[in-house]
Each structure stands twice: as structure tokens, then as C-alpha cells.
Design brief:
The chain is mainly α. It has 5 helices and 2 strands; from the N terminus they run H-E-H-E-H-H-H. Helix 2 links the parallel strand 1 and strand 2.
Length: 129
């Protein structure tokens, strides 16, 4: 089992002051490092949707020397896409699993990817008229 930093009180970081945002991130890592022999140096944003974190949080995580951060944006990790942006490693998408066998099989079989593609297509079609 591995553990990584995730904040102290689980706030939506974009709604906090500069001081609270920094404290939530840095103290989470400090406390975890003191209690776990080999913590994972990758931050996990609470909530983690786009808009729930931003440049301020990314700067704090970089300054601390953590290797990156994961968001709650659904999607696949594409190494090319991560390298396209200086912040790519600090907003890595991740998939949540419901924990049931049918849900896991749906993700493994690519059904979730198909559903995401269909949603993107509908959004594009709706926006264009």
C-alpha cells in the first residue's frame, strides 16, 4: 500500500486563501513524510476538477519538489500530452472505479473511452449548431 499527500482538511483549493492553500499542501506532505516510511511524492487534488486548483497550487507543488499531481478529470494518460505543457505533470487525469467487477471490466474493455468520445462528439455537435 502506498500513500501520497492530499491536503489536511480536504477543501476545494481554489476557494481558499493563498496561505490556506499553501498550508494544506505543504503540511499534508510534511505530516505524511513523518508518518510513512516511503510516501509517494505525487499530490492528489481534493475534488480535483478543472477550476478546483490552479497555477497557485501547481507552483506550490513544484516548489516542494513533488514529481506531479493527479486531478479528478476523467481521461487517459497520454505521455505526449503531458509533455506538451509545463504543467502537464501537475494535472494528470485519472479514472475512478466504482469497485464492482462490471465497472472495472467496462474500463478495461474500452467502454469508458467510447462513452467519453460520444460525449465529446455531442458537445461539439451541439456547439456548432
Amino acid at each position: 500500500m502506498t500513500f501520497g499527500p492530499h491536503t489536511l482538511t480536504h477543501p476545494v483549493l481554489s476557494t481558499t486563501s493563498d496561505e490556506q492553500s499553501e498550508r494544506e499542501i505543504t503540511e499534508s506532505w510534511r505530516r505524511l513524510s513523518g508518518e510513512v516510511s516511503r510516501p509517494v511524492p505525487v499530490f492528489c487534488y481534493p475534488a480535483g476538477r478543472l477550476g478546483d486548483f490552479g497555477d497557485r497550487e501547481i507552483a506550490t507543488i513544484r516548489r516542494m519538489g513533488l514529481l506531479g499531481a493527479v486531478s479528478a478529470q476523467p481521461g487517459n494518460v497520454r505521455l505526449r500530452r503531458l509533455g506538451d505543457s509545463a504543467d502537464g505533470w501537475y494535472a494528470v487525469p485519472r479514472r475512478g472505479y466504482q469497485g464492482t467487477l462490471p465497472d472495472v471490466l467496462q474500463c478495461v474493455a474500452g467502454v469508458e473511452d467510447l462513452k467519453m468520445s460520444i460525449r465529446r462528439w455531442f458537445r461539439t455537435a451541439s456547439a456548432s449548431g
